[in-house]
């Protein structure tokens, strides 16, 4: 039987056993206190499914195929977008189902900031910066501007300005606490700005006992090289995908 509950210490404790594998679920629960949490037979050891109130974005960690099957069967018959699912759970969820837009990613984490950021004046972003940030966002969509505003308003961010113009920035995604986007305008690249703001922001997170992490699309060598230059290490893999109706 599928049981809907609110997050509690038992849920967090279970997910924290394999913390690096579940960073996005833990991040989502940390930033979304009223998230929907589902268990199978009221037993957390079977795994955890989490989704938003609109059943539009899902996070999952399941230890058996029955849980995955029952979870999908009892939810509204609409496309379900799963975010950063551990590979074992993704295998359970996608078995014999129509899967759209699968994106395999590596999960990279930063355990410490080992060098001091370059000497730039770094400041938090303001809501007025959201349109600029969104205009350069790789995954820009009809909803991304609202997301950027939420990221800037509620969570840590960092930016560098030249003569008042925002030229380099880094944010934390409000949906799950992951790092990104990190961007420097092309005309200001190769000056160490992206690295400086990233180290500055990630050091702030670490001082709050928050592990900076990022999902990088498989074979995106540019992003992987940047992450490694910042001190990130590849810890596990996950899959982003949609299950069609």
Based on CA inertia axes, which overall geometry fits?
A: elongated
Specify Rg, calculated over alpha carbons: 19 Å
How many domains make up the 3D coordinates?
A: 2
The low-pLDDT segments are none
Classify the oligomer: single chain
Count of distinct strands: 11
**Separation of termini?**
22 Å
The major sheet is characterized as: 8 strands, mixed
| Number of helices, where a helix is a run of at least 4 consecutive DSSP H or I residues | 8
Instruction: Indicate the structural class.
Output: alpha+beta
List the secondary-structure elements in sequence, H or E. EHHEEEHEHEHHEEEHEHE
Strand content: 25-35%
Give the overall average pLDDT: 90
Q: For the largest sheet, list the strands in their spatial order.
A: 1-2-3-4-5-11-6-10
How would you characterize the overall build of this protein?
This protein is of the alpha+beta class. The chain folds into two domains: 2-105; 127-210, Gcn5-related N-acetyltransferase (GNAT) (Aminopeptidase, 3-Layer(aba) Sandwich), CATH 3.40.630.30. Helix content is 31%, strand content 30%. It has helices spanning 9-17, 23-31, 65-74, 87-94, 130-135, 144-154, 193-207, 221-229; strands spanning 2-5, 36-40, 47-51, 57-62, 80-86, 99-109, 157-162, 165-172, 179-184, 213-217, 233-243. The chain has an eight-stranded mixed sheet with strand order 1-2-3-4-5-11-6-10, sandwiched between helices. The longest helix has 15 residues, at 193-207. The protein is elongated. The protein starts with a strand and ends with a strand. The mean pLDDT is 90.
């Amino acid at each position: 039987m599928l049981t809907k509950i609110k997050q509690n210490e038992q849920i967090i404790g279970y997910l924290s056993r394999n913390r690096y594998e579940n960073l996005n679920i833990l991040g989502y629960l940390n930033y979304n206190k009223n998230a929907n949490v589902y268990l199978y037979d009221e037993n957390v050891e079977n795994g955890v499914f989490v989704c938003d109130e609109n059943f539009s974005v899902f996070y999952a960690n399941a230890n058996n195929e029955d849980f995955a099957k029952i979870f999908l069967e009892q939810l509204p018959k609409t496309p379900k977008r799963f975010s950063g699912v551990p590979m074992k759970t993704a295998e359970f969820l996608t078995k014999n189902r129509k899967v759209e837009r699968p994106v395999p990613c590596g999960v990279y984490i930063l355990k410490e900031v080992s060098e001091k950021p370059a000497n730039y004046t770094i400041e938090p972003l303001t809501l007025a910066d959201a349109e600029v940030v969104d205009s350069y966002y790789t995954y820009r969509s009809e909803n991304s501007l609202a997301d950027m505003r939420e990221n800037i308003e509620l969570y840590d961010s960092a930016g560098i300005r030249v003569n008042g113009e925002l030229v380099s920035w880094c944010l934390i995604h409000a949906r799950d606490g992951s790092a990104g986007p990190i961007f420097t305008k092309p005309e200001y690249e190769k000056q160490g700005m992206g690295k400086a703001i990233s180290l500055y922001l990630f050091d702030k997170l670490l001082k709050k006992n928050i592990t900076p992490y990022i999902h990088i699309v498989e074979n995106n060598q540019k992003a992987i090289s940047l992450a490694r230059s910042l001190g990130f290490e590849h810890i596990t893999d996950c899959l982003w995908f949609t299950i069609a109706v």
